[in-house]
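User: I've been trying to design a sequence by hand for this structure and keep getting stuck. Would you show me what you'd pick, starting by listing the structure so we're on the same page?

Assistant: Good idea, let's start from the same input. This is the structure you sent:
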């Protein structure tokens, strides 16, 4: 008798065929074949039900559940309890033993009760930033309390009790009246008049560099659409229509475009490049729906980020950017990247397999999805990832050099990775195809060589997290302004995300940077000195006063 799994290929397609087949087998007295057919149908229905249940649970979590991928130790232990195990196999004595499972001797010997802990009070207040302007106000004692109630003598000042109040000074508009000097020779009127050049940023417009910078910062850092900026300015008594703000922001982004282009050159010339992409809705009159799906590509390298727009998801656009690239490229396992790295469907590979790096975050996310779907076996993989990322956190906390980080990974991380993949390969053979856990193990197996390569050089990160964080700003802006007005408008968006994303990476105040750089570029800053205006170099200049919390606040 064939097994139920082997017989699935011969199963009837609909209920009428099933009934007919069962009647034929019963009439012929072929009881073993009939049982085999029924079992095959049940297995097929079970597998389909499992896959559909997982998809439904995933859809409900997307709508109502937490988006974070963080899994606490307590959650892992609950999943292990479902499996009837205290820890993953092979965990004894490994990196997983630190917090993945309780110690076996706990609870065997009665322990004296711990003394009660004192009640936790509120944490101390953080000091106010020292760089802020400080204004001192002396508060006198009221006149009625300045004399001694016992003898009537005037009280003497013996000091002050000092406290601090953080105040907010609202932004304000001001008009700068530019009076350009005119000179003429009283003896030689034929020489005409000499007039000083204007310091205006726009020939026909009236915004100063600070206002242009503010419009861009609110759009790209605060994700504020132009119509809301217009409403905000109206509260200050200044009427600026969204269309006017759009023209001004387009002008400012065109001014800053050379800086963004130079950032892209630096990024794409780096030894280690991380890449990902996201969609962008773009208005298109020639499209049947009136709107098309463009793409924003994000590349992180050389401690900078470059965003580049492509009008469609054709491999030739990012492939053109990577022509001549000789470093290592990190990305996820999306199948479409293969065509991109070949420059097309049949082109020569631009980045060979041995220079491609995988992303541990994407591998982990598949197991996270399976765990949220109720498969407790995924907790084993999550515990391994927890140990691996704990080692990475230790390397960063101790500020290890690239050589020391590589040594730490080889000594501590790789044994955990080996245990993880041994478990994955063994489990994968027993899983039902199409289920979330099977999808997770298959993805991990496909990415094994590329992800292991991350542990061969201390300069590499083990995931593509920085690019993911940069793309979140694009996603947030997209929710607010919904679409780009044209391909040119989408290209300008890429310029904005490039310059302000790079500012964020270096903790640079975006408003101060944009105000300074727009003014310098419009004043004729030499193109050969653009590197001095890039955020990493600008952050070291005297102009860049440190701003506490700037990198996080923006």
């Amino acid at each position: 008798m064939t097994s139920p799994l082997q017989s699935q290929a011969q199963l009837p397609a609909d209920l009428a065929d099933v009934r007919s087949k069962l009647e034929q087998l019963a009439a012929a007295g072929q009881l073993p074949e009939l049982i085999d057919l029924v079992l095959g149908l049940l297995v097929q229905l079970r597998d389909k039900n499992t896959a559909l249940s997982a998809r439904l649970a995933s859809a409900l979590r997307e709508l109502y559940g937490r988006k974070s991928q963080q899994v606490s130790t307590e959650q892992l232990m609950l999943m292990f309890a479902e499996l009837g195990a205290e820890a993953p196999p092979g965990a004894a004595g490994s990196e997983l033993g630190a917090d993945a499972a309780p110690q076996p001797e706990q609870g065997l010997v009665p322990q004296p009760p711990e003394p009660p802990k004192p009640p936790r009070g509120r944490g101390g207040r953080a000091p106010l930033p020292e760089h802020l302007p400080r204004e001192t106000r002396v508060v006198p004692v009221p006149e009625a309390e300045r004399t001694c109630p016992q003898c009537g003598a005037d009280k003497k000042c013996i000091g002050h009790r000092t406290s601090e109040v953080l105040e907010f000074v609202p932004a304000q508009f001001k008009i700068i009246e530019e009076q350009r000097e005119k000179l003429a020779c009283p003896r030689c009127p034929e020489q005409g008049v000499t007039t000083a050049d204007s310091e205006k940023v726009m020939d026909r417009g009236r915004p100063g560099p600070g206002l242009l910078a503010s419009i861009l910062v609110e759009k790209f850092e605060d994700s504020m659409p132009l119509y809301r900026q217009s409403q905000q300015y109206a509260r200050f008594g200044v009427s600026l229509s969204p269309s006017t703000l759009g023209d001004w922001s387009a002008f400012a982004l065109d001014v800053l475009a050379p800086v963004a282009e130079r950032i892209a050159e630096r990024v794409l010339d780096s030894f280690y490049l991380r890449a990902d992409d996201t969609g962008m809705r773009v208005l298109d009159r020639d499209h049947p729906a009136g709107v098309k799906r463009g793409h924003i590509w994000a590349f992180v390298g050389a401690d900078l980020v470059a965003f580049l727009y492509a009008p469609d998801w054709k491999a030739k656009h990012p492939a053109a950017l990577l022509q001549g690239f000789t470093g290592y490229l990190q990305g996820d396992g999306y199948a479409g990247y293969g065509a991109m790295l070949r420059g097309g469907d049949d082109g020569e590979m631009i980045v060979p397999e041995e220079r491609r790096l995988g992303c541990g975050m994407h591998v982990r996310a598949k197991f996270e999805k399976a765990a949220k779907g109720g498969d407790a076996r995924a907790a084993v993989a999550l515990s391994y990832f927890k140990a691996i990322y704990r080692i990475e956190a230790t390397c960063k906390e101790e500020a290890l050099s690239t050589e020391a980080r590589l040594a730490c990974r080889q000594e501590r991380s790789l044994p955990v990775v080996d245990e993880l993949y041994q478990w994955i390969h063994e489990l994968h053979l027993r899983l039902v195809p199409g289920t979330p856990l099977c999808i997770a193990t298959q993805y991990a197996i496909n990415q094994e060589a590329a992800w292991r390569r991350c542990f061969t050089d201390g300069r590499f990160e083990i995931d593509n997290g920085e690019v993911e964080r940069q793309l979140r700003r694009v996603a947030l802006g997209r929710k607010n302004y919904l679409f780009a007005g044209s391909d040119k408008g989408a290209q300008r968006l890429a310029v904005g995300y490039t310059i302000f994303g790079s500012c964020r990476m270096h903790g640079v105040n975006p408003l101060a940077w944009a105000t300074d750089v727009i003014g310098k570029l419009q004043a004729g800053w030499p193109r050969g000195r653009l590197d001095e205006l890039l955020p990493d170099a600008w952050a070291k200049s005297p102009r860049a006063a440190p701003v506490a919390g700037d990198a996080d606040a923006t």
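That's my pick for every position. To get oriented when you compare it with your attempt: Residues 198-330+464-554 form one domain. The two ends are 67 Å apart (CA to CA).
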